[in-house]
């Protein structure tokens, strides 16, 4: 006789749950997630959520997951106008404090990362240099004095347009017999050159954005770019393209997997210079 994974009571032969228990669980999960998602417009009642969780067979770890999922929905709603207000920030922080989330639990969570990104952009729009980065370890860059790191992107792919040349229409030449045992070879030629420009992955590494420069550090290349040496920024869904102020400069692309944030971050920082 199997036991119900929700209520713990006998569920019947080869059964692991009661249908009514599953329905109660799913309904409770939906209500909790919705309450957190609506936290920008209504205050979250901790006791009420804990009561619903208990009645719906929702344990501690699952409850935290539901709260974070609802929080991400709330952040998405807050960012529909691309701005996170101070009131919205306070309400979202209240949810985190109410349910006792700590920094370690949140550091790798996508919803919390999106929350911090929104705060960084708001700081910039208010004319402040953001100081919300919690750096663990040592940066692989030699930052200048009084330079503030604003954001770090890991596993960034660095691309450049490169020109490749190959030849078409060439000939390997021919041998002409002059007399027995003596041959004269007419030299071959390579034909005419064709050049192709291709977007090529150059390296992969860390992209550090500060209030004065963009730093990239990979296995093959490491460099620093001052904002006043960048002519243009091009937004992409998964990253950003830049064009340096140089006669021979080639377009460069950084794939950060968050093009909207990357573009708004560097453009607003460049406008401060």
Briefly summarize what is shown:
The protein is an alpha+beta fold and 273 residues long. It folds into two domains: 2-125, no CATH class; 149-162 and 197-270, PH-domain like.
- Contiguous low-pLDDT stretches (5 residues minimum) are none
Q: State the secondary-structure class.
A: alpha+beta
Strand proportion, as a percent range, falls in: 25-35%
CA-CA gap between termini: 72 Å
| Widest β-sheet, arrangement of strands | 8-7-6-3-11-10-9
Strand count:
11
Number of helices: 7
Summarize model confidence as the mean pLDDT.
88
Largest sheet properties: 7 strands, antiparallel
Count of structural domains: 2
Query: What would you report as the Rg, rounded to the nearest angstrom?
Result: 30 Å
**Residues in helix, %:** 25-40%
The SSE order reads EEHHHHHHEEEEEEEEEH
Characterization of the model:
With 273 residues, the chain is α+β, with helices and mostly antiparallel strands. It folds into two domains: 2-125, no CATH class; 149-162 and 197-270, Pleckstrin-homology domain (PH domain)/Phosphotyrosine-binding domain (PTB) (PH-domain like), CATH 2.30.29.30. 34% of the residues lie in helices and 30% in strands. The protein has helices spanning 19-37, 46-55, 60-78, 86-98, 103-106, 110-125, 259-270, and strands spanning 2-3, 10-12, 149-168, 174-179, 182-186, 192-210, 213-218, 222-226, 230-236, 239-244, 252-255. Strands 8-7-6-3-11-10-9 form a seven-stranded antiparallel beta sheet, with helices on one face. Strands 1-2 form a two-stranded antiparallel ribbon. The chain has a two-stranded antiparallel sheet with strand order 4-5. Helix 1 (19-37) runs parallel beside helix 3. 22% of the residues are buried.
